[in-house]
Specification:
Blueprint: H1 3-52, E1 59-60, H2 61-68, H3 72-80, E2 85-91, E3 98-105
Antiparallel strand pairs: 1-3, 2-3
Length: 107
């Protein structure tokens, strides 16, 4: 191989490295945006439920899954990433053990 050929392939390798790095950064930013969007959707839902005034606004995972269309894992992750969501445990009256995980807006 001549030095010109090596230079040609080195240029293409540099371009490929730049493209791969760009895809990685874009994917990371996309993931952050999706997580933020889910967190805000959960915060808005819980705040609206609490402002209705029918009850304390505490909602179980199953109800949130139905109303907000988030998975159980997404709900838990969003609640831990938010300072505006409080997690509560409902105890069984007979056994005293935790029976349900509830989420409530702090606002």
């Amino acid at each position: 191989m001549s030095p010109a050929d090596l230079q040609f392939w080195a240029n293409w390798a540099s371009i490929a490295t730049l493209l791969v790095a760009s895809v990685g950064v874009f994917s990371y930013l996309w993931q952050l945006w999706r997580r933020r969007r889910k967190r805000i959707a959960l915060e808005d839902y819980l705040r609206d439920e609490k402002r209705k005034g029918a009850d304390k606004g505490q909602r179980s995972i199953l109800r949130i899954m139905r109303d907000v269309a988030l998975s159980e894992d997404e709900i838990i992750q969003a609640s831990f990433n938010s300072n505006r969501i409080q997690r509560l445990v409902r105890e069984d009256a007979d056994t005293g053990l935790a029976s349900d995980l509830l989420f409530e807006s702090k606002d």
